[in-house]
Design brief:
The structure is a single chain. The protein is 30% helix and 34% strand. By secondary structure, the chain is α+β, with helices and mostly antiparallel strands. α1 packs across α3. β5, α4 and β6 form a beta-alpha-beta unit. Bound molecules: coenzyme A.
Length: 185
């Protein structure tokens, strides 16, 4: 069970649940081909973003494995929604979870994703009691791989053409961190 103490603050960001008012801002990046290039989904129509947003609004807490936590990331300075975070609780038995991070390209390369993802680790390891948190990306997704390396995750695997994504066989990288590694940082 995980009930984050919203709103959570980092130096430059507020992490909070999604609300209906987030539709325009969420759609401004979920609709972009450069954002979805290495993701499993295609750029979304407004109706598709609205449906995803409805689901995210209902995912502000975690009660059972198999569920995911959806967190909106807002810039303190402007109040603008700039990204979204996901923490999947993949297994109770193995105490494992997976992270996902998507930011608006206007706000890439400023360390916001790393700053926000640090909070996801805190929630997963300290509040949910996870043993291992992993992240996966397309091997061509340099920004995602750099982000995970910068967060101190270990590259555990480079899987060759293990998935057929957007019509092509795609290599996948697997990164992970253990709670013991998190504590040592
Ligand atoms: C993945 C993503 C969240 C990274 O965001 P970001 O804004 O680059 O992240 P940060 O600014 O916090 O930077 C993290 C690190 O990656 C580096 N980096 C960012 N873009 C890079 C690029 N194109 N090439 C090389 N390094 C890059 C940053 O310099 C930083 O490195 P550092 O820690 O050594 O300083 C962002 O690119 C994104 O939203 N992409 C689209 C969605 C996506 O693919 N998400 C990942 C799903 S697996």
């Amino acid at each position: 069970m995980l009930q984050p103490a919203y709103p959570m603050k980092t130096a430059r960001l507020i992490l909070r649940p999604f609300t209906k008012a987030d539709l325009n801002a969420l759609h401004s990046f979920q609709s972009r081909p450069d954002v979805t290039r290495y993701l499993y989904w295609e750029p979304r129509t407004r109706a598709e973003t609205a449906a995803v947003l409805e689901d995210k609004i209902a995912r502000s807490t975690l009660t059972e494995p198999g569920e995911y936590l959806a967190i909106a990331v807002e810039l303190i300075d402007t109040g603008e929604l700039i990204g979204d975070l996901t923490l999947w609780w993949t297994s109770r038995e193995h105490a494992s979870g997976e992270i996902g991070v998507v930011f608006h390209p206007r706000h890439h390369g400023k360390g916001y994703a790393a700053e926000a993802a640090g909070e996801l680790f805190r929630l997963g390891f300290e509040d949910l009691g996870l043993h291992r948190i992993y992240g996966r990306c397309d091997s061509r997704n340099v920004a995602s791989a750099s982000l995970m390396e910068g967060l101190g995750m270990r590259r555990e695997a480079h899987l060759r053409e293990n998935e057929l994504v957007k019509g092509e066989w795609t290599d996948e990288l697997v990164y992970a961190m253990l709670s013991s590694e998190w504590k040592r940082r």
